[in-house]
Amino acid sequence: MFGWRIVAIDPGRGNSSPLSAQGIRTSERHDSRCRVQDTLAPNGIGLTLYFMQKTGFTEALEQIVAADPRYDREAYLFLQDALDFTMKSRKKQKTDLSRHVTGQELLEGVRVFAIKEYGPMVPTVFETWGIRRCDDFGEMVFNLIRAGIFGKTETDTIEDFRNGYDFCDAFVKPFVPEGRPLSPKMQPGEPVQQS
Asked: How far apart are alpha carbons 109 and 61 in whole angstroms?
């Protein structure tokens, strides 16, 4: 869903320059929002990398938040960090080194990263940002896709974020002391009641 995209590049285009003795060529171009770097191997297969310029990202994010105020700006910054965390985790585990992250993989990365960053405060933090369920991450991802910040494949849909995990199971239960029952009324964002 996010990251590199494999493309066939016309080697005669633009200001290509040799990168190595293997005949790999790169070219760079800019548009109003990002720097684009194409890398081409001799077989005509290559990668297109999009580097969002900081001011372009900030402006795009401000436009997203203005158009859809359900989610705080910080929620989008967290989502970007969670995507980076997910990509790095995959690289460390040496599993599926493609740059494509599915909605379910991103949700798992969000869960792990959120607990690592905020511990038992995750439900409270998410609530202040307007995030109440996994579907909200899907809405945010597709806001970022529409703004051109994230990319997607033809098979990626917002439905990929439906039926994720229950926030109580993911963010409250791990912090309830062992042997202590979870109150059925307890919702994410509420403190564990003392008995």
From this structure: 21
